[in-house]
């Protein structure tokens, strides 16, 4: 049966964050005849999207945004990694706005791309998703959307959220036909543009009604402008919603699995990198996500596992809930082990010592520090009263890092930033390391791969132990006298 595909002329994306911004930009980039508007309540964020400096750092993002938002009057060759895309001259078709109601009312397809964090209560044994933003945005859409509009869940949501969206639409616009699709995003921060340009798959979940399948076909049409149809997977709504949680849970599980092996390696003399190399050759296992390190961070892995655990609990599947909870337990165990090693290598105390931290973002090529392992390491180090914790990250704005630290510790009433407290955020890595007793490399930024070891004598504290660390991750190695614990996060999502 040929399905009645709506000719999509106008798309609105609600939520101009790490997902909404880049996703809408790539859709607009590849569909010059579709008008794409990204809306957000955050005026500052929209102002940045309309400036020469988008609010987030992603390789290739600036170029894609410029082509679609500003238009071009000559053919442009766009190169990102292995990709070369030739863009003929075009008018602008990407817009950023704070006028949610107007932009939603004009759209054939409305993406819901708002934040869905973890509820702050009940964390530790599964926690429900905080749906405040999603419900608010759904209400706004329900009031403004034109009849027949297709509402697409781009946000990561608990299984069966489409029913809540449907009920909300029905309450506000009884009897008006809307179709709801689930289209979770699988991009990883740091490689967002590359992932969007060449996705492993596009997942579309729909109700299996004629209207639902037709809506899915319309969305498929949008993606097929640049994605081969063989990569577009269509499933039912609930499978699509749950697939996103499962994908993140299984990626995080691999990181926790290899990290448990690193703990065994340190006590036996086996080398976790060699093990990863050996088992990664097994085609059934594959070599990705096998790098032992500080554990995963970022705004998604933990929250999505907690959401999965919560779901299992509400379904009275306690064993299943316990199983997935272990992934988070091991992640915390690994980070605690690392901090204990730092203290042990400094003769059991941090008192009077300066500890330097290179890398504060949760992974390389992003300025995102949400749930960064570095944040947790700083918290643990503080308990040992170092004289200074010196932070440097090549992409995080020092003022943003300071604001975040103030926010994180606001409830404790403690003043942690210098001059009253021990934390200082530097603009220069050498200054951050000057007179330091230990340098902890917590984000795998390329520029930290080969730290300035030759400078050791001049920059490190005279009490620092004499041996120099290998320029490789060391947590999985047999303990040696390290003055630099060179850690890399192995988080991707
Ligand atoms: P984000 O916090 O960066 O962006 C969300 C934006 O939505 C914010 O700018 C906020 O102001 C806006 N917003 C909230 N309510 C609104 C409303 N009613 N009207 C207009 N704007 C509103 O979040 P994000 O990282 O982009 O994540 C969005 C969703 O995508 C989440 O569900 C997340 O789990 C999922 N996801 C994130 C990633 C990632 O790498 N960050 C990857 C895949 C999926």
From TrEMBL:
Gene Ontology molecular functions: NAD binding; UDP-glucose 6-dehydrogenase activity
GO biological process, one term: polysaccharide biosynthetic process
Keyword terms of this UniProt record: NAD, Oxidoreductase
Binding site for NAD(+): 40, 45, 116, 156, 189, 303, 370
KW Lyase (keyword) present: no
EC nos: 1.1.1.22
GO CC terms of this entry: nucleus
Catalytic activity of the protein: UDP-alpha-D-glucose + 2 NAD(+) + H2O = UDP-alpha-D-glucuronate + 2 NADH + 3 H(+)
Pathway listed: Nucleotide-sugar biosynthesis; UDP-alpha-D-glucuronate biosynthesis; UDP-alpha-D-glucuronate from UDP-alpha-D-glucose: step 1/1
Residue ranges of every copy of the UDP-glucose/GDP-mannose dehydrogenase C-terminal domain listed in the record: 356-477
Residues that coordinate or bind substrate: 186-189, 244, 289-293, 297, 363
Annotated active site: 300
Family, similarity comment: Belongs to the UDP-glucose/GDP-mannose dehydrogenase family.
Name assigned to this protein: UDP-glucose 6-dehydrogenase
Naturally occurring in which organism (per UniProt): Phialocephala subalpina
Entire-sequence positions represented here: 46 to 538 of 657
